[in-house]
Amino acid sequence: MQTQTFHITPSNIDQVQIDQAAALIKAGELVSFPTETVYGLGGNALSSASAEKIYAAKGRPSDNPLILHVANVDEVANYAAEVPDEVYALAKAFWPGPLTVVLKKKDIIPDESTGGLDTVAIRVPDHPIALALIQAAGCPLAAPSANLSGKPSPTTAEHVLEDLNGRIAGVIDGGPTYIGLESTVLDLAHGAPAILRHGGISAEQLKTHLPNLKTSNENAAHSPGTRYRHYSPNANVSLISDFASAELRTWLEEKQAVYIGPQELGNPHIQLSGAEAYAQNIFALLRQLDQRGVQHIAIESIDESGLGRAVMDRLRRAAGLS
Ligand code: TXA
Ligand code: MG
After folding, report:
1. Measured in angstroms, how far is the CA atom of residue 256 from the centroid of ligand 2?
2. Which of 69, 94, 100 for a ligand 1 pocket mutation test, highest count of atoms within 8 Å of Cβ?
3. What's the 262 CA to ligand 1 centre distance in angstroms?
4. Between the CA atoms of 84, 203, 36 and 312, what dihedral angle is there, to the nearest 10 degrees?
5. Has this prediction a pTM greater than 0.85?
6. Is the pLDDT of residue 218 over 90?
7. pLDDT per residue as tens digits for the range 266-321
8. Domains of the chain
9. Among residues 5, 128, 133, 138, which one has the fewest Cβ atoms lying within 10 Å of its Cβ?
């Protein structure tokens, strides 16, 4: 299969190309598109055949459910059997945006889209290309991150093509994504609200609306995604903290490690500081360093507040610590 690339500028949507990409989705094909978090691999969420294609293209186990992307909160009631009041309050605060809610599903959503679960995960992405594509396709888009299973989530169309060229009908290149890591997954289907995956909306932000929010992994049984191996690079990844610069320099030299973090240490190092910059760059850097055949990467830990929690969660997985 030849993968067609569409080039669209987010600030100047080319409706002709959006309609061409949407036509592929309507015909049952898959198109990758940018969201504010990472690139998604979109197919018609109401079609079991499209969902099966998504699993096949990614090499993903078919019991790991997909997120439905819709254009606005009013669509949620079409796909969720119960819509608790919290959903409308959360939508007002955070949608469009990187928050996914898990709700009891309606039968219109095929079991293939939800990995056989009786719940469905839904979000409204904050990206003009994603919203235009959903509207033109006329159906909710099931879209996992557009990487091969086990690879880091893609933050550019080049990353998508590295993994999926020839395996999908199209990709819309809309430039790099804004946040760089995935949405927060919030379970509203099993008692007290619980975070299943930390992401672009922080626990602190959610707590102002959900005082009884559970932030640990007590609901892990309801979170199939956490059962699977996540990306860890071929390189050995060390998470480091509280190292004095002089000691750190010696240690990095001994290990011949590439340093990623806020300190200015001389080569080889990649200077990054703050949760936002880590989030935007970390997946791309891991891909790049793997391609360069780097053997050892030392990443400086960051504070776990706000977006830092989601960043540290991804770094611990990359280091094989969780
Ligand atoms: O930011 C994002 O969420 C990106 C963009 C493309 O929207 N999508 C994404 O999808 O990260 P994916 O498939 O890579 O991750 C979806 C996560 C998985 O951990 C999955 O287990 C969880 O959401 N999930 C989906 N449906 C669920 C459900 N019904 N119950 C519990 N967890 C669910
Ligand atoms: Mg993913």
Report:
1. 31
2. 100
3. 30
4. -140
5. yes
6. no
7. 667 899 999 999 999 999 999 999 999 999 999 999 999 999 999 999 999 999 88
8. 4-222 (3.90.870.10), 236-318 (3.40.50.11030)
9. 138
